[in-house]
Amino acid sequence: MKSNKKEVLLEIHDLQIQGYSDEQWVDIIKGVDLTLHRGEVMGLIGESGAGKSTIGAAAMGYARDGTRISGGSIEFDGMELSTATEAEKRSLRGARIAYVAQSAAASFNPAHKIIDQHTEAPLHYRLQKRTEAQEDAMVLYEKLRLPNPDEIGFRYPHQVSGGQLQRAMTAMAMSCRPDLIIFDEPTTALDVTTQIEVLAAIRDIVDEYNTAAIYITHDLAVVAQMADTIKVLLKGNEVEEAPTEQMLKSPKEDYTKSLWAVRSFKREQKARPKDSVPLISVKNIDASYTGGEKVLDDVSFDVYEGMTVAVVGESGSGKSTTARCITGLLPPSKGEIQFKGEALPPDYRNRSKDQLRQAQMIYQMADTALNPKVKIHEIIGRPAQFYQGLHGGDLKSRVDELLDLIELEPAQYYNRYPPELSGGQKQRIGIARALAANPTFIICDEVTSALDQLVAEGILKLLDRLQRELNLAYMFITHDLATVRAIADEVVVMQYGKVVEQGPKEDMFTPPHHPYTDLLLSSVPEMDPNWLTTLLEERGVDNVGDAASTKIDPNDEKVQS
Amino acid sequence: MSFTVFVFGYYTVLLVASCIAAYFNKRAVFMLLFSLTLVSFILGIVGGVGALQTVAALAGLLALAGMISYGFREFLVYLAEGDVGAPLRGNNTLFLSVVGLFTVLAFASSAYGWGLTEIFVFLAVAMIILLPLSPDTAKELRTAPMTAAFGLFVIFTYLVMGVFASYIAPHGEAEVISSAFAPRGEDMLLGADQLGRDMFSRIIYGARNSVGLALVATVAAFILGASAGLLAATKGGWLDQLLGRIADVIMSIPSLIFALLMLSIFGPDISVIIVAVAIIYAPRVFRLTRSVAGNVVVMDYIEAAKLRGEGNWYLIRREILPNSTAPLIAEFGLEFCFVFLLVAGLSFLGLGIQPPTADWGSMVRENATLISFGDITPLIPAAAIALLTVSVNFVVDWMLHRSSGLKE
Amino acid sequence: MGDILGLIGRRLGLGLIILLVISVIIFFMVELLPGDIAQAVLGQGATEENLRALRKEMGLDQPAIVRYLEWLGGAVTLDFGNSIVTDERVTTLIGDRFMNTLFLASYAAVIAVPFAIILGVIVALLRNSIFDRVANVMTLTSISSPEFFLGYILILYFAVKWSMFPAISSLSEGMSFWALLERTFLPALTLVLVVTAHMMRMTRAAIINLLASPYIEMARLKGTPPWKVIVRHALPNAWAPIINVVALNLAYLITGVVLVEVVFVYPGIGQALVDAVSKRDFPVVQASCLIFAATFILLNLAADVGAILTNPRLRHPK
To answer: Which subunits have 3 or more CB–CB pairs within 8 Å of chain B?
Structure first.
């Protein structure tokens, strides 16, 4: 992580960008300065709506459809981009400034082979002949540790996995050995174990060619691994900028401190109540979608009254399918779900009103979980009306009580529609709807993963308070181990539709682990800037990510890591 | 002499207007005006003063249409800002009973001959029109393009024309008042048709008959298609599959051909036309409803409602419909255009509404011979058809653009 | 490749089944007739004896399913029986006319397809400019006008006022190809106007949809010049939507042709169908309907097969 502080490569001064919405231009970037030196990696972090991605595009002199650069200067290596002609700017793109997008699958053209898209820029700028460019591509693929580097480029994008495609896109950005690469959330869409490989590959290649980079992300731990300096943004304004070490140790601004403080929430671990029947018991269930392969294979676990069980796993591990089996949306092909020791009908349509009432669900995306055309009081009031038959004044006071419970002022929200609320407020309404049924068990499906960290923290605290007050049991589906650490009593780890390991939280976070749990735990980025380096030294580059996880079988023995 | 004055005036107006546009930096307007000037040079050389006069007349017509549209839009915005629909919107039962009352009165009036049928029909329709006028609509209306405003104005005019046809038309629908193809005069604005009936009166009545038939047929197709679509989306499974296959089959027969087949068998009768159109267009409505509702059905709030134990009727009424109205209304407009053109085509072929009822499509055919004498009379009912379809399309285009939310 | 052949095979099979179902509909709908065909032909005043004789002659005494199979067997060999009205063979009655209709439709298609696609792409690239808005209003107007409206306007100006082309497209034996083109120019132009508008709008929508894809932005951010973005990145993915647009509009031509043929008194199958409908000549109606439907299905089939063949995901399976 040496940074060559001599030569300035990119100098942005008082940048202002406007976006077009509701028939008028609104400021989205309100005067941001940025100085990047040759070979330096700058992390841009901020919550959604901070304008990080817009600044990234502006560094290439590019304004997306519906935005315009309305003021300030962007000087790249002596050239002023805000006044340059389209042709001048174009001659920089791909050659001297390259871009790596968030979704590799959508950003590769499905009609051409990966390597043909890779060689497009070098051929266009006449830097290399076709065969040279192809050989160079293979060298880059090799450096980025893609499997079969000689062959993988000749596939079409849809034939390659997401993590590999993301690395192929980084290789493509490198094809002309640019001075600057903009990484726009390159690992956000990836699983944690896959993310590690991509992070390591990106860091190594940027280091090797001494390329400057702007790394855009919302994940502090990730940026800590990648950047030399970090700039924090909030709603189109700069909050502060400092070298990574300093930023992590002693942030100056309150906002930054609050971002850092997020992960401090912890809760006492509860033990199972003695000699009692589990509230929900999942007994040896198998499940598959119509005609498909088995997605769940012999899954069993118990949830006791008033406790939180976190179900952890990556995409495709079957954790959401398990939830669908419990709620009865997907009847299991084998095994059964018991409620207080009694078997529930497998299909929700055959369950009684009271059985349905007992188990409620809170969803990941509050946007799709609340009907945008229904007023808040009706969303919350409907379950109370449906299950308890409340009407008129009783119903209104129940809705007020529920809004109080989720810490929203009743008078202010009673008559509003979901689209008028912020993400966190919507999620609270979702919680209130679940509570309105007076349940004993709530499934929380990735409830915090779509939220900014501060807001997510508030939701976790609320859920914890509600659990204590109402003695609720939670099944917490998540891929985020920090959340598990904060809120869980027991943990169930799933991989390929099987339960790999389960037990009380403390046991799960101390060795010995199942190899998969071990991989998962070690893959979660930490706030220590040397974490990635240390991890790669400990495990070796071939023992992280997809390469490692495919070697693991759910039935493996536990290992002492 | 006066021609010279006209030509000078023509170019002066164009050039002055372009200069003003250029001075105020209105690029689009300037480009339009100046290119018109250049085109006029060529037209003037080729077509002489006559061509320039046509251009001027067209421009004047366009300006007139623009002014009317602007005025009508401001009128609607003003009404919407006043929130005239508010008392109706708050209370569903009140609204339905008021509309219902007027409808019943209209039927009663026509049955007992009170002579107030038109008034009651108009009141019922007016209630429905007022319903969506709210401050939110005012915001939308203010950004509506001129074309949409023009469309709204034309639709409104046709509505008044159709409802009050018997008051507006100077002569009866089938009243023979002169010799065949009599020229226009004081008494007959557009002359007489092949049997000596007043063309103008028949066009006014045609608004009621042609548009009314198309409207009823569209509503029938819509009810059939939309309910099947909603049912397929909520129930899913084999019902969805079955309805989808049926729609596929019906849609693989060209619509006009299918209509001709049915008319040849059951004879050209209004009820046959309505049933045929309903069967032909229902699959299109079905497909759209199915896909719109299909997008809603996968939402988590539907899952939440299902898991709560809600029935299908509740799901459709409270959860799916409120989220599908915008595209469904636009689709209604679009379907109306297709149906209207199809019905007009059938009438033109002599298989639609049967004489002596006035109908635009058949009026074109009956008077078609006049074309060979350079008389534009048969084009007028055809233009009436085109004008309404264009207007509906303008409005639909605006609605689709708005609901897609694209800032492209 | 096996995957693709399977898909195409399945699609062809589906097309065949739909065609079969349609033949059933066309045949049995006539059975729904109040009374039967013999009654319809002879009218209300027919005596019981005459009716019986005619029924026997037409084979109506056999069960419907047998008659359907015979009719279908005939249809496969292009034998649709005899006309009720003129007693001529239906095939001779509509065979030439079908060729005439195909000629008119192809005439219009040859002009309209390239014209519309090029204009559609241009309008998509110039989207939101004044040119785009004017084109939008013009295409909407053209789509909204009934074919007979456009047809009569063209007749009024090109035939009556300026005497450039004939108003009536009667064909005669041994006409030269150029004379033929001139004779049929106005009906073809009418079709071109309507179809071009439709096709332009669809092409525009398809291209704009495509230009919003992230890979197009990626290509721009790689410094690819605009023409290359279109040719190399947009076009290879645009084939499927464009093929679809073309097929849909060719199918539209097939039906639009009926009205245009009537306006210009063109001896095509559409006119024959309309005549037969008003004379209730069921064998002719059934035959023409089946031919129209078959053409329609064939075109849709071609579009789907084209879309399958040009889809890179299907062409290069995992």
So the answer is: A, C
Q: Which domain holds residue A224?
A: 8-260
Nearest to C208 among B253, B264, B408 (CB): B408
Give yes or no for a contact between C288 and C94, defined as CB atoms under 8 angstroms apart: yes
Three-state DSSP class for residue B200: helix
**If we measure between CA atoms, which residue out of A311, A359, A300, A303 comes closest to residue A335?**
A300
Subunit contact B304:A363, Cβ cutoff 8 A: yes
SS3 call for A279 = coil
Torsion of CA A65, A69, A73, A75, to 10 degrees: 0
Shared domain for A363 and A391, answered yes or no, is yes
- Do residue A248 and residue A292 come from a single domain? no
Same domain, A81 and A224: yes
* Same domain as A165, residue A217: yes
CB B85 within 8 A of CB B134: yes
Same domain, A253 and A314: no
Of C130, C140, C212, the CB nearest to B393: C140
Looking at the domain assignment, is residue A557 inside a domain? Answer: no
- Asked if the C-beta of B298 comes within 8 angstroms of chain C's C-beta atoms, the answer is no
Chain B contact set for C285 (CB, 8 A):
260-261, 264
Q: Is A301 in the same domain as A440? A: yes
If one counts the domains in chain A, the total is: 2
What is the DSSP annotation of C46-82? --HHHHHHHHHHHTTTS-HHHHHHHHHHHHHTT---B
Show the 3-state SS of A377-439: HHHHHHHHHHHHCCCHHHHHHHHHHHHHHCCCCHHHHCCCCHHHCCHHHHHHHHHHHHHHCCC
Q: At what angle do helices B379-404 and B199-206 cross, to 10 degrees?
A: 30
Tokens 């943990």 belong to residue? A491
Assess contact for A73 and A12: CB atoms under 8 A: yes
* Whole-complex ipTM: 0.87
Q: In one letter, which amino acid is B357?
A: T
Does the residue A94 lie in any domain? yes
Task: Report which of C91, C143, C148 is spatially closest to residue C265, judged by C-alpha positions.
Answer: C148
What are the phi and psi torsion angles at A209 (to 5°)?
-95, 5
Q: Answer whether the bond into residue B356 is a cis peptide, omega within 30°.
A: yes
Q: Are C247 and C300 in contact (CB under 8 A)?
A: yes
Residue of C nearest to A175 (CA): C222
pLDDT by residue for chain C (318 residues), tens only, comes to 567 888 888 888 988 999 999 999 888 887 776 666 677 666 666 777 777 777 777 667 777 788 888 888 888 888 877 777 777 888 888 888 888 898 999 999 999 999 998 898 888 888 777 788 888 889 988 888 898 999 999 998 888 888 888 877 777 777 788 888 888 899 999 999 989 998 998 888 888 888 888 899 899 888 888 888 888 888 888 888 888 888 888 888 877 788 999 999 888 888 888 888 888 888 888 888 888 888 888 888 888 888 888 877 777 776
**C259–B257 CB contact, under 8 Å:** no
CATH code for the domain of A173: 3.40.50.300
Give domain status of residue A556, yes or no.
Answer: no
The verdict on A47 and A164 lying in the same domain is: yes
